Amino acid sequence: MAKGDKLYYKSLRLAYLKKPDHKTIYSLLIRSSELQNDKAQYALATWYIHGKYVEKDYKKAFHFLLLSSKKNNSFAFYDLAVCYETGKGVKINKRQAFLNYLSAALLGNKQSIYEVGRCYYYGIGVNKNLDVAQRWLNAAKYWGVK
Description:
Elements: H1 3-15, H2 22-34, H3 38-50, H4 58-69, H5 74-86, H6 94-106, H7 110-122, H8 130-142
Helix pairs in contact: 1-2, 2-3, 3-4, 4-5, 5-6, 6-7, 7-8
């Protein structure tokens, strides 16, 4: 197992303690992220998105999402899409939102399957195409996404 993975899994073990030490966990996640661990990068992004253990910072979250997406983390692609669509941490870019939803969907992220259909339905970042939209929305429905 790679060192980045070991650090990430150690942070998870510490997180499940009755009284987790968030500073130690954060330090482990940073070290794991520096070793290119996409799960640690994604975890850090979510910490900055939600601001529960660190100060909320969408620009830092966006940075970690980009790093994680380079390792094809479908959740990172989905959250990048949301950032691009809403302008959190980055300038609004509907085309990039669509492309990130599409990347996440192709990697199996079920919510993104719906979002790709929504983008085609409303023409968000892509030419409006109701036939293609319906195919994606049917796939989302198949997977139980509404």
